């Protein structure tokens, strides 16, 4: 089991658009296993490769007993219905803010054999799929907050010991 060290808000890798996976080799298998191992501890729902310092389009998830990974994911469907849901992030620990998300999402990508996979769901799974795909586009949930919440979040983040630029 390989729990990888997390990257925190302020680290440039989190604001960089991740590269597509093009090599389906042993190193990719290791990355996927590390993503699965690192998302496994209690209280974690998803983990994108940039959060462990790897700028590749890959994420893992572990939501209500459903666990897996997606390579080169793309959101292909979002419900028109949205809600504000408390959201946090492993790369922005201890901070939770209401974030507007679609209530249902569908992501398509590929697996380690470059075979198509689809992951879909509502509630927390929909939130996870949107959140992790955002990471691969260099977007943190803080970027989606309403102006007042974003100012508050930025102020709080800069005071935390984990803040990368301290």
From TrEMBL:
Keywords: Hydrolase, Iron, Metal-binding, Protein biosynthesis. SUPFAM superfamilies: Peptide deformylase. One of its GO terms (molecular function) is peptide deformylase activity. One of its GO terms (biological process) is translation. Belongs to the polypeptide deformylase family. PANTHER family: PEPTIDE DEFORMYLASE, PEPTIDE DEFORMYLASE, MITOCHONDRIAL. This is Peptide deformylase. It comes from Amycolatopsis marina. The gene is def.
């Amino acid at each position: 089991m390989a729990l990888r060290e997390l990257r925190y808000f302020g680290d440039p890798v989190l604001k960089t658009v991740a590269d597509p996976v093009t090599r389906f080799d042993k190193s990719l298998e290791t990355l996927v296993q590390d993503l699965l191992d690192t998302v496994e501890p209690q209280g974690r729902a998803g983990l994108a490769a940039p959060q462990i310092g790897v700028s590749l389009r890959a994420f893992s998830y572990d939501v209500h007993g459903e666990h897996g990974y997606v390579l080169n994911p793309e959101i292909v469907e979002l419900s028109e219905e949205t809600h504000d849901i408390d959201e946090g992030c492993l790369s922005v620990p201890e901070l939770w803010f209401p974030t507007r998300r679609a209530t249902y999402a569908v992501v398509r990508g590929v697996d380690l054999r470059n075979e198509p996979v689809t992951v879909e769901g509502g509630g927390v799974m929909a939130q996870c799929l949107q959140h992790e795909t955002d990471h691969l586009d260099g977007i943190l949930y803080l970027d989606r907050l309403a102006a007042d919440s974003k100012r508050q979040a930025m102020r709080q983040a800069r005071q935390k010991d984990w803040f990368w630029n301290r």
